[in-house]
Amino acid sequence: MKWAAGIPGVTHSVVPALTGMGVGRTVKLLTKMNQKDGFDCMSCAWPDPDHRKVAEFCENGAKAVTWEATPLAVPTQFWASHSILQLRAKSEYWLGQQGRLVEPVYKAKGDAHYRPISWDAAFTVIADRLNALSSPNEAAFYTSGRASNETAFVYQLFARAFGTNNLPDCSNMCHESSGLAMEEAIGVGKATIGYDDFEKSDLIIVMGQNPGTNHPRMLTALEDAKRAGASIVAINPLREAGLLRYKNPQTVRGIVGKGTQLADLYLQVRLGGDMALLQAVSRRVFAAEKAAPGTVLDRAFLDRHCQGLDEFERHLDDLDESAVLEATGLTAAEIDDLAARYMAADNVIITWAMGLTQHKKAVPTIKEIMNLLLLRGNIGKPGAGAAPIRGHSNVQGDRTMGVWEKMPDAFLDALEAEFGFSPPREHGHDSVQAIRAMRDGRVKVWFAMGGNLAAAVSDSATAEEAMTRTALTVQVSTKLNRSHTVVGEEALILPTLGRSEIDRQDSGEQFVSVEDTVCAVRPSRGQVEPIAPGLLSEVAIVSRLAREVLGDTIPVDWAAFERDYDTIREHIARVVPGCEGYNQRVRQPGGFVLAHGPRDSRTFPTPTRKAMITVNELEHVECPPGRLLLQTIRSHDQFNTTIYGLNDRYRGIKNGRAVILVNPDDLSALGLVDGQQVDVFSEFPGDADRELRGLRAVAYPTAPGCAAAYFPEANVLVPLESTAEGSNTPVSKSVVIRIEPHTERLVAG
Ligand SMILES: Nc1nc2c(c(=O)[nH]1)N[C@H]1C(S)=C(S)[C@@H](COP(=O)(O)OP(=O)(O)OC[C@H]3O[C@@H](n4cnc5c(=O)[nH]c(N)nc54)[C@H](O)[C@@H]3O)O[C@H]1N2
Ligand SMILES: Nc1nc2c(c(=O)[nH]1)N[C@H]1C(S)=C(S)[C@@H](COP(=O)(O)OP(=O)(O)OC[C@H]3O[C@@H](n4cnc5c(=O)[nH]c(N)nc54)[C@H](O)[C@@H]3O)O[C@H]1N2
Ligand SMILES: [Mo]
């Protein structure tokens, strides 16, 4: 399939909604999604309610809301009839189909089952175990990026009041590399654009991102940009349907017409080849400037705002073009074409996602994006900028609110001034470090605010083993997942309200707030009755837990937080930079946009007060002969570890996720044929091979030497020790693998 959305997109979105939720609930929720008085879609971080139409959702947003708002609840007898081991044998898909979690459940030491428990008893168990630890650092508090700003703020406050910075989050596995590279380059780790910039742009380069599936509403922005005259370049080892051609289901033209051709140039780069490509383009920019001085570089901008230009130019003088061709797998003509387009455009936006962040050299690669943009002043002017497109709907807000294992001292100082206790200063564990710490017995209590770390993090086998070595695992969740089946000696599941549900507290109905990928903060109000009467909100859970664990040792009025979320927002206003007047501003129509120095005024809060052009040594992944580089990707029918269905429509894959996509030439060179059952082994120095058996090989036009399989299943192949330099993000997009014809595993004896 070469085009995305259109009529199949709309019918695919509405059909599951009608079957999963019942008609009334569906219509109510889908018409309130991403509207100014509605709730924020819990799928990706691209809601863009300013450009709203009546049905402001995409196919995958509709799947996300259907999945959450299902009328199905896990019945009480479920826990007696399924042991934890039996649940562990079930697929992620099956677990998600069991319905919403509606009562707290507890697994006692030695018990094989979870059993219902009261909220009070659950909080007592957690408080006893936390308070018995010999150091607060023996606990870790994970967050997945769906938590609201209010939850995130109260949660990090609780962890720090308890005494630890062990606040790993999903961002560690996601855009950590982007945040780090951008902080170093321009002093702010967030996108320098607003949604309106797309229409003002001349050239949009989409790198390492599959928006048709993962940020479907971004296709509308690309289509609008295209109609306003922009050209679009896609850089991706896979030819993703959403980037080739798009039919907008919200316009009649989109439904009946042929759709808009999106990418004017499609570069099928090799996995991990982007750093070489970006350096080669920057080198061409310098060469053109040399040939026609004063016409290519934005000298005024560079002189006034940047540092490091000359070193960068000298470094690129030595760039080995043959190494570039090998790393990228592209022709010199293709690179020339990209460079010419870049230089011909006054305003350029570069967007990216996991195709860039999950590589060993992710941080320097993203710094090369910043270098290239800075050369022609493409930061802080209309229609131009750097745009990491965030994943989870509030992953960016959670960070703003302090969920990070290494928040800067200024934030901790502000917490101290506001609440009158001394937060710990020692950095905590990120996600990969937390797994190591559980494996080695250094973290004994694991608390997760959402998410599914056992499945999401690299090296599933090690991760699961690590979680089972803890004394207590506690997971605040809406639905069952794999992580609930890999438990500590004791374990708790605490069910919670979903974002689509009305949140009633003693002072009345509450709303929460979220920040999207372009720093826009807005309220989100639940719309439907909660699935069950006994559910607590995330804020209520943290507030009650904090009271139970800390008593009145710390002067914080936790009960007030639960009663009225405005109280939390008053603290946010005083602690979090840029959130002054939070309660008032978030209530303005459409919310507000957080200040951003580089975007708003070309002020760069780096140590030098300049934007930093950096020198990065080129290195690309060596792939030994007979081996391929594997990337792990999302299908069209999943949200991270949540599996909605077994198809990947835009890639033409049906009825099963156990596939590996391989270039047809590579397949035949390996003596394999399309459709054959194969076993995949990953090779990492100093480690035994990891294996994933029984995949179906699919001949697929990916870049030569590259392969792709679905996350989370393929996480067994990603070594825990293989992480990006600087950000420690698992290297999920370039795993060295060997493929062999499938054999049944030999059983010893
Ligand atoms: N429906 C839906 N929406 C989602 C999600 C979901 O699972 N389902 N997940 C959310 C989350 S948390 C996130 S972070 C985002 C993820 O959004 P994406 O980053 O789009 O997700 P991936 O499936 O990881 O796709 C990576 C893309 O990068 C390409 N790529 C891989 N390696 C390279 C490389 O070396 N160079 C280049 N140039 N390209 C490369 C792949 O071919 C693929 O197109 O989506 C968010 N939105
Ligand atoms: N190999 C490989 N691994 C990857 C990636 C990859 O591309 N390849 N991508 C990485 C990325 S980008 C990310 S962001 C991580 C994702 O890592 P996580 O965020 O940990 O995983 P999710 O699958 O998004 O979490 C889903 C679970 O969250 C719970 N949940 C859903 N809604 C709510 C809610 O409103 N409240 C609460 N409390 N719980 C809720 C449900 O129980 C659900 O099962 O995975 C990473 N792992
Ligand atoms: Mo993500």
Automatic annotation (TrEMBL):
InterPro entries, A to Z: Asp_de-COase-like_dom_sf, MopB_CT_YdeP, MoPterin_dinucl-bd_dom, Mopterin_OxRdtase, Mopterin_OxRdtse_a_bac, Prok_molybdopt-oxidoreductase, YdeP_MopB
Pfam families per the UniProt record, alphabetical: Molybdopterin (PF00384), Molydop_binding (PF01568)
Listed SUPFAM superfamilies: ADC-like, Formate dehydrogenase/DMSO reductase, domains 1-3
Organism, scientific name: Microbacterium limosum
Boundaries of every Molybdopterin oxidoreductase domain copy: 100-471
GO molecular function: 4 iron, 4 sulfur cluster binding; formate dehydrogenase (NAD+) activity; molybdenum ion binding; molybdopterin cofactor binding
Protein family (similarity comment): Belongs to the prokaryotic molybdopterin-containing oxidoreductase family.
Protein's name in the database: FdhF/YdeP family oxidoreductase
Limits of the Molybdopterin dinucleotide-binding domain: 628-734
GO cellular component terms listed in the entry, alphabetical order: membrane
Cofactor(s) it depends on: Mo-bis(molybdopterin guanine dinucleotide); [4Fe-4S] cluster
Alphabetical keyword list: 4Fe-4S, Iron, Iron-sulfur, Metal-binding, Molybdenum, Oxidoreductase
Tree of life domain: Bacteria
